[in-house]
Amino acid sequence: MEIDTQAPVAEVPAIAKAKKKYDEQRFTVRKPEWQYLHLRMTFDPPHPPTYTSPSYPPDLLTWKTHLSTALNQFLGIAGTAIPIDFLHLEGPEVWMRFPREDATRFIAAIGGWGSEVEGRNVGFRVLGSTEFLMGIVGGDGRDVFV
Amino acid sequence: MVRVKQRYLLFTILYPSGPQSANSTTSKPTQSMTFHSPSPSSLTRTSLASIIRSSISSNFGDWGIGQCGGFAVKYFSPATSTGILRITRDNYRILWAALTYTRELCGQPAVIKVVRVSGTIRKAELEAVKLAEEAIRRVKREAKGAKNGGGGNGDKKVVAGVFAGGNSAQAATAINDDQDDEMLVDIVDSENDDDK
């Protein structure tokens, strides 16, 4: 009888301790530093498939030039001051990041821009825009948590 | 009914080197007179507006012009290099930045300093009067220091001349003319108080 009554009393703090130790932890990233963007440079009329030339696919300097032109037109010098990091270049597509606070105006500036280069109309298409890199590299990100 | 809120920016133009055209009238300009010297006569309300607009355009692009291209130069006096701009309240900082980034006017280096941001044009005008008074007092003090004693009656003429010049060179609105008359009275009164 004594053992029955005392055993649970002794157990309760142990269980509480264990629960505290393995309690679920939640953490929300509220204001990430960067905005990640997946962009494609569009050409009209389009280049034939497997076409290559010194000017196609565009290199990073061409990207930087065209982006700066678009930003300068829409946002002036303040727009060209937005720092851009190019993360990856593949064909006519680029993956890049810039400060999250500038995301709205940046996308507005490049989305409304068009120009004629070498007889083709050049523009940008936003293929993806997210606050996290996983959002534009493809996949559902499940492999991170294996 | 929602009221459109405005901001009035009182600004002064400073000339670090002094405009070339202004130095001919004064016999020996003091340092502060050179710095706060009158603007060239080619600088009018309309030309000032176009200069500011081009500054907004180069610094903030199409978006900046869209946001605060609707500003108005309510008052500008080339004699005192002082003016008042009106802009919607949400966008006054863009206009302020564009003013700050202006580096030259009419081909000579200049700095536009925003002295006061106000919700009513009346307060901006009062501040302009205060500034003019201070400028005149400072010039008098410098002149006294230079030749140990200055003229008493001549100062009133200087004040009257400064503001009369501002009115004749610049076609201000009727309201502004009334305000300018008040300014003149205020300044003369306070100068008399100082002399006593």
From TrEMBL, chain A:
Signal peptide: none
Residue ranges occupied by any Ribonucleases P/MRP subunit Pop8-like domain in the UniProt entry: 33-113
InterPro entries listed in its UniProt record: Pop8 (IPR020347), Pop8-like_dom (IPR049128)
Pfam family for this entry, one: Pop8
Record's GO cellular component terms: nucleolar ribonuclease P complex; ribonuclease MRP complex
Any Gene Ontology biological process: tRNA processing
GO molecular function: ribonuclease MRP activity; ribonuclease P activity
The protein, known as: Ribonucleases P/MRP subunit Pop8-like domain-containing protein
Organism listed in the record: Arthrobotrys flagrans (Nematode-trapping fungus)
Automatic annotation (TrEMBL), chain B:
UniProt cross-references to InterPro entries, sorted A to Z: Pop5/Rpp14/Rnp2-like (IPR002759), Rnp2-like_sf (IPR038085)
Domain of life: Eukaryota
Keywords: Coiled coil, tRNA processing
Name by which UniProt lists this protein: Uncharacterized protein
Any one GO biological process: tRNA 5'-leader removal
Coiled coil region boundaries: 122-149
Family, similarity comment: Belongs to the eukaryotic/archaeal RNase P protein component 2 family.
Stretches for region Disordered: 19-41
One GO CC term on file: ribonuclease MRP complex
Bias-annotated ranges (Polar residues): 19-36
Record's keyword annotation contains tRNA processing: yes
GO molecular function, one term: ribonuclease P RNA binding
